[in-house]
Design brief:
240 residues, Carbamate kinase, two-stranded antiparallel sheet, 9 helices, 18% strand, globular
């Protein structure tokens, strides 16, 4: 007897940009935005879904921009990694305040603030129903948090990466600047690479392609979208 397909993904990795957390402030962390994201994560967790999160640090510091201004690239990237830890702790605080147990795991040791990343430990936290927030990138310079998301998703055997953005999917050109921009309902990994669509960096896309890990790009600013994506409703753009 064939098993019925699940109505929702069982284990997901949510990738959030640091810029999302700044809201309309232009810099830093908007506590209202973080609380909103935490509430949506709680709704997903209530479905019985294992959820892990990777957050960028661009709302605080962008390593690649600092490197372009003359800072040593490796040093700039390490500062950016620290920014991601700040965001991870902010999200953990909001989650804990609404009764969602969570753990922050960092790629480099910061034992006073978070647990060091160990794959088996991360998986065990997920199995116990905790939200796992990964901070510190991969722990290495020259790698983005998009690559971190792809790497961690593969390591924890996630079903899919939920790439949260401020637009409702992937377009052939900037929909803000071009009214004629066309939205894609689905794309292959190769199409993303060949068209140079800025969904995630090429390292992240290639890693997902090599491990057959799908990505959904969707609008996180619309309330309830995280839950809709997890429930396999047709929103955003599927890359597979």
């Amino acid at each position: 007897m064939k098993k019925k397909p699940s109505k929702f993904y069982k284990r997901v990795l949510l990738k959030i940009s640091g810029e999302t957390l700044q809201g309309n402030l232009g810099f830093g962390i908007d506590s209202n935005v973080v609380r909103g994201v935490a509430k949506e994560i709680a709704e997903v967790k209530a479905l019985g879904v294992n959820i892990a999160v990777v957050i960028g640090g661009g709302n605080i510091f962008r390593g690649i921009n600092a490197a372009a201004q003359g800072m040593d690239r490796a040093t700039a990237d390490y500062i950016g990694m620290l920014a991601t830890v700040i965001n991870a702790l902010a999200l953990q605080d909001s989650l804990e305040k609404i009764g969602v147990h969570s753990r922050v795991l960092t790629a480099f040791e910061m034992r006073a603030l978070a647990e060091p990343y160990i794959r088996r430990r991360a998986v065990r936290h997920l199995e116990k129903g905790r939200v796992v927030v990964f901070g510190g990138g991969t722990g290495n310079p020259y790698f983005t948090t998009d690559t971190t998301a792809a790497l961690r998703a593969v390591e924890i055997n996630a079903d899919i990466i939920l790439k949260a953005t401020k637009v409702d999917g992937v377009y052939d050109k900037d929909p803000v600047r071009h009214k004629s921009a066309r939205k894609f309902s689905s794309l292959s990994y190769i199409q993303v690479l060949q068209r140079r669509l800025q969904i995630m960096d090429s390292t992240a896309i290639t890693l997902c392609m090599d491990n057959n890990l799908p990505i959904i790009v969707f609008n996180i600013t619309k309330k309830g979208n995280i839950k809709k994506v997890v429930q396999k409703q047709k929103i955003g753009t599927l890359v597979s």
